Each structure stands twice: as C-alpha cells, then as structure tokens.
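Tyrosine--tRNA ligase
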Amino acid sequence: MNIIDELKWRGLVNQTSDEEGLKKLTDKDEISLYCGMDPTGDSMHIGHLLPFMTLQRFANAGNHPYIVIGGATGSIGDPSGKKAERPMQTMDQVQHNVDALSAQANRIFPSFTMVNNYDWTAQIGILDFLRDYGKLFNVNTMLNKEIVSSRLETGISFTEFTYQILQSLDFLTLYRQYNVQLQVGGGDQWGNLTAGLDLIHKAEGQEAEVYALTIPLLLKSDGTKFGKTAGGAVWLDAKKTSPYEFYQFWFNQDDKDVINLLKKFTFLSKAEIDELAEKVQSQPEKREAQRKLAEEVTTFVHGEDALKVAEKITEVLFSGEIQELSTEEVSQAFNGVPSAEIPNEEINLVDLLIAANVDKSKRQAREDIQNGAIRINGEKLTDTTLNIDPKTSFDGKYIVIRRGKKKYFLAIIK
C-alpha cells in the first residue's frame, strides 16, 4: 500500500497540495519531509504526537523525516487558531523550551534529524529579509490566508503577520539544503504550508517538486476536541503526566472512538485493527481494543519498562493490594487524588482521617472505621484506638487511605 493510501485509510489526510503527484513521488523515490514545532512550552502533548507519528510512518516506509524546532518562529508567535496575540516569551525561556523539546523529541523519535530554524533565521539582516524574501510575498494574498483573516477584526501585530514568511523560509531552506520536498502540519497550518510552496516556486522555479499535507483536527465521536482531560492536556513528559496516567487516558477511551484511535496512534496493521474492531462489537466488556491502544502508545512514548509499571499499578489498584507498590509507583498511582500534608509523627487513626480530609467529623470517622470501610496502605483497620506511624510505609513519604471500594486519599508526610 502506498504511504499516502495508508494515511488516507488511517484518516490522517486532511488536505494535500497535489495528492496524485505526491503518490507518484513516494512510489518512485525515498523523500525527505518535515514538520515544525514551536517551543511554546517545555513538553509536547498528545496533540503534537499525531503529526510526528505520521512522519514516523514515512520513516518506516524508507523516507527521511526532519523536525524543525522553532527557535526563531517560536520567539515571535504563530497567529494560527488564536483570537489575540500570544504573550511574548523571553529568549531565555524560548531557549529553555527548545532544549527540553529537542531532548524529548530525540528520545521518542531517535531516527529523525533535528534542526533549529534560529540557526538560519538569525543570520538574516532586516534589509536582506525585506529585499530577498519580503519582496516575494503579496500582502493581499497574505491577508486572505485564514490564519491572518480570522484575526483582522480583533487585530494582529506586524510581528505575528510575518510568521508565515518565516515558516515559508524554513521550507525553502530545507529544500535547498536537504532536498526536503514535503511539509506536514495540522489542519490549521494550511495557509502557512501553501505559503511555503509559493515561496519555493517563486525562488526556485515552478518546476520545483514540493508538496504540503495537513492532518485533520482529531475529534471524539461526540464532536468534542480530543486530547483534553479534566486536569488539562495529556503531556508526553512523565513528570507532567505520569506513565500510569498516560496509560489510563488511552485505556479509558470510549468504544465509539477506540478503533479510530488505533488507526491513528498505533502502527498495527489493518488486519490487526479489524480483528480488534470485531472484538469491540462481540466482547466490549473485555476492552481488548482499549488495552492494546494503551499498551502500544505508552510503549511508544515511554518505553516498555514504563508500560510494565503502569500495568502493575492498574492491577494493584484493581486488587486493592496497595502494599505491593513502590514509593515511586504510589506517587504515580495517586497523583491527582485528594491529598493533604500531615506531620511526620504518630497519629491516631481517627485523627488521620480528619487530617487527610477523608471524613469531616470524628463521629463519621469512627463509624467508617468500625464498619470496615477504611483501609490504610491496603490493610482493613477496624480499631479506632490504633495509632499510625508514617515512618513504616512507603519510605515514610505517603499513607494511602481508601474509603469504601474506590475512593482513595493520600496523606503526604512532611
């Protein structure tokens, strides 16, 4: 199957500048292609993952992907999808984010070539910029691009207005230096991508064989945007979203969405995905498709060891055997549950439940204990006179409290 046909089957093609031309090119040649990423933060989230996994599919087919880290473009701000100007980051903050994102991308996509557009943009003086590149851009055409036209009513600075020139310059530079012929981006980047094609054709001639491809905005079956949780974005940085939380995000996907997500976020074959689709219909209670999705994406982003930890935490929480977790695993498993700090000293069980906000009154705490509703570090306790020594569990850092079957609380020892 041609790589473009595969992308279409997976639902990863929104727009292409010349689909037939691109199919012919990828049939006859191994090509170089790229996707850019601006350093607006110090970690990617799963919204970034899809275009770069698309580049990985090209790599698996023998092609050569580049990631452009936007040390230059990120310092001025992309107007796309924004109703107002982005806050300007300091150059120190931009560099910090560049370093963090580069390390993260190199870990997840080690076969890609990483470049920073600051390296060529910083060398261009203002007069050279205006004479060599600004002259090739028609303001009327730029105004008609959706990324700009959507901002005209509220206003757009000249700085953000020039963003598409800088991004176009990236494509031209990569074409000249590395023979990069395809730029991949999100659906909201179409105007920037086509501006790059126009610049290359003006600077290098109409015979230059270059293409643009965008990936559709990913929506859930209910029409809402995919990738957000009640806690915010799902990050690829394990310190921001633990591997266990990451695993659970994928495992908890709806039956209506899981096959679409398997197509887009895994490298499973059509036959494998079709088999899982059948199981969603015949045995939905087993959640085999969701489990496979969680396994594949967690392994791809965090590695097999992190997957094993996530699966262990999942199993332990299901069984209630909390004492089998390590201190680090407790930190992952209970990140986000109600928590409270308590002193590093012995504390009566009733007082512990009050201090950890498990119960509001001592009367209710005693009732919960006597009724067998309280477990401390996995052990059911029914004696209201017991004292709990924080030093004896999880390296003296945590006490895990469970009330009832599923309600967890975390006491953090200080």
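thats it. The two ends are 58 Å apart (CA to CA). The mean pLDDT is 91. bye
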